[in-house]
Amino acid sequence: MNALAPSAGADRHVVARATVTSAAAAALGGLALDHAQAMGVAVCVAVVDAAGTPLFLRRMDGVAAPIVEFALDKAFTAATMAKSTRDFGVRMTGDAALGVALAGRRRMITWQGGLPIVAGGEIVGGIGVSGATGEEDEACAAAALAALGLGGVPPASGG
C-alpha cells in the first residue's frame, strides 16, 4: 500500500468548497463602484468569500463611516444565508421565531443591497453595497455580478 495515498473513505471527512478569488472580488468591487458613479450615487462596496471573510472593501468619498459596516453586513448575509438580503428580509418577516432567533446575531441584515456570488450553481461569496437607496444598492451589486457572469439563482437552501 502506498503510504502517501489517502485511506479508503478518507475523503468523506473533508468538504471541498469553491470560493471567490481575491482578484474576482476586486473586479466585482470596482465594477459596482463604477456603476454607482454612473448612477450618480456614492456607496460603499464589500465583497466577501464563501465563509463571509472580507476580500474587498471600498468607501466612496462622502459616504458616512457607519455605511461601511452595513456593506459588510449585506455581503456577509448574502454569502452565508445563500440569498439576497432582500429575500432574507422577506423570509425573516414571514417567520417570527426566525426573526427573534437572528435578531441579536452579528452581521445579519435584511436591507436590500446584498447579493450572493454564484458560480457553477454554488455560492462562492457575497457582495454588499450600501449608501444609496436599497434599489440603487442592489442595482450596483447586480451590475457587477452580471458583468463577470457570477450572478444567477443560488441553490435552494433551508434558511
From TrEMBL:
<dbReference type="Pfam" id="PF03928">
    <property type="entry name" value="HbpS-like"/>
</dbReference>
<protein>
    <submittedName>
        <fullName>Uncharacterized conserved protein GlcG, DUF336 family</fullName>
    </submittedName>
</protein>
<dbReference type="InterPro" id="IPR005624">
    <property type="entry name" value="PduO/GlcC-like"/>
</dbReference>
<dbReference type="InterPro" id="IPR038084">
    <property type="entry name" value="PduO/GlcC-like_sf"/>
</dbReference>
<dbReference type="InterPro" id="IPR052517">
    <property type="entry name" value="GlcG_carb_metab_protein"/>
</dbReference>
